[in-house]
């Protein structure tokens, strides 16, 4: 039976719903949570449109790199509307178990409704849990694989999130982290920024979500390069870490082994 657990209650503080100013970076966790909740109704359609469907290929690669296999217990952190969790579910099958974990209740509601709508038999093995990626409510060494798609860049304390992933992974298991690549090549950075300024933000403006999507550009600028991500993973205790550039260098995927 599909279930949706809400470990954290959304704040009733109306200030959290205020739109972030375009001139000010989105800084506190509650503001980020509110941002992802606002974009939840259009998130999937915009990803398909803006990436010309390419994000589905990148997500398949991320799941494949996680090493998840039939019968495994796996975690999709910052699962949003559930794309990676659904792919993991197909991979681990009905003998396995998938947890989709996110702090936005609205994103989880979209994920849960897709689970019912798509209604593949194996999708019954997915459970949605609301909570913070820096404080995971799971015991040490619980999971055979972890995925995180477009999550780490949006987490305020990335070191803590990596530490938590390390803690809940079983020894020898892998985490696969897909995100925008903060490239060291100025040409790639210019393409990314041009796309965000001239395609992503204008399209999002049509949905009243200009600020939310403009945040993408600053978040990539403030993210870590592939080498820095590898270093962070090693500092957090992972035995091995390799970052792959994909999508012509626009995206990247970190694979780290506990
Ligand atoms: C997958 C996409 C966006 C995910 C996403 C991530 C976030 O952190 C957000 C934060 C706040 C708001 C929204 C998001 C969010 O949507 C879409 C990515 C589109 C890109 C601009 C990439 C465009 C790629 C090209 C069309 C295809 C390139 C092909 C390549 C050369 C092979
Ligand atoms: C860009 S979406 C990615 C969704 C999905 N993984 C995908 O690839 O399409 C980022 C997600 O991370 C979640 N998120 C960001 N920071 C988080 C945190 N500290 N704890 C839990 N979820 C978080 C947001 O709520 C949002 O759903």
Automatic annotation (TrEMBL):
Localization (cell): Plastid, Chloroplast
GO molecular function (one): methyltransferase activity
SUPFAM superfamilies per the UniProt record, alphabetical: S-adenosyl-L-methionine-dependent methyltransferases
PROSITE patterns: SAM_MT_UBIE (PS51608), UBIE_1 (PS01183)
Classification via Pfam families: Ubie_methyltran (PF01209)
One of the record's GO cellular component terms: chloroplast
InterPro entries: MenG, SAM-dependent_MTases_sf, UbiE/COQ5_MeTrFase, UbiE/COQ5_MeTrFase_CS
Keyword NADP: no
Enzyme Commission number, as recorded: 2.1.1.329
Catalytic activity of the protein: demethylphylloquinol + S-adenosyl-L-methionine = phylloquinol + S-adenosyl-L-homocysteine + H(+)
EC category name: transferase
GO BP field: methylation; phylloquinone biosynthetic process
Keywords: Chloroplast, Methyltransferase, Plastid, S-adenosyl-L-methionine, Transferase
PANTHER family xrefs: 2-METHOXY-6-POLYPRENYL-1,4-BENZOQUINOL METHYLASE, MITOCHONDRIAL, METHYLTRANSFERASE
Function: Involved in the biosynthesis of phylloquinone (vitamin K1). Methyltransferase required for the conversion of 2-phytyl-1,4-beta-naphthoquinol to phylloquinol.
Protein family according to the UniProt entry: Belongs to the class I-like SAM-binding methyltransferase superfamily. MenG/UbiE family.
Record HAMAP family: MenG_phylloquinone_subfam, MenG_UbiE_methyltr
NCBIfam families: MenG_MenH_UbiE (TIGR01934), PRK00216.1-5 (NF001244)
Name the record gives this protein: 2-phytyl-1,4-beta-naphthoquinone methyltransferase, chloroplastic
Organism the protein comes from: Vitis vinifera (Grape)
Gene, per the UniProt record: MENG
């Amino acid at each position: 039976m599909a279930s949706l657990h809400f470990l954290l209650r959304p704040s009733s503080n109306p200030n959290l719903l205020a739109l972030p100013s375009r001139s000010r970076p989105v800084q506190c966790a509650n503001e980020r949570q509110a941002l992802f909740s606002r974009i939840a109704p259009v998130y999937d359609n915009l990803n398909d449109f803006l990436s010309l469907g390419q994000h589905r290929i990148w997500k398949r690669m991320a799941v494949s790199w996680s090493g998840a296999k039939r019968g495994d217990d796996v975690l999709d952190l910052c699962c949003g509307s559930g794309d990676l969790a659904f792919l993991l579910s197909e991979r681990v099958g009905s003998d396995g178990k998938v947890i989709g974990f996110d702090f936005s209740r609205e994103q989880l509601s979209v994920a849960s409704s897709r689970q019912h709508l798509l209604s593949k038999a194996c999708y019954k093995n997915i459970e949605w849990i609301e909570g913070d990626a820096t404080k995971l409510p799971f015991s040490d060494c619980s999971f055979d694989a972890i995925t995180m798609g477009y999550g780490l860049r949006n987490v305020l304390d990335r070191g803590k999130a990596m530490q938590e992933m390390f803690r809940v992974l079983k020894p020898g298991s892998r985490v696969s982290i897909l995100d925008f690549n903060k490239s060291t090549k100025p040409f790639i950075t210019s393409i990314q920024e041009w796309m965000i300024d001239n395609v992503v933000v204008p399209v999002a403006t049509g949905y009243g979500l200009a600020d939310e999507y403009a945040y993408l550009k600053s978040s990539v600028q403030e993210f870590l390069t592939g080498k820095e991500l590898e270093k962070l993973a090693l500092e957090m205790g992972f035995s091995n870490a390799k970052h792959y550039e994909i999508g012509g260098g626009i995206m990247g995927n970190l694979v780290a082994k506990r």
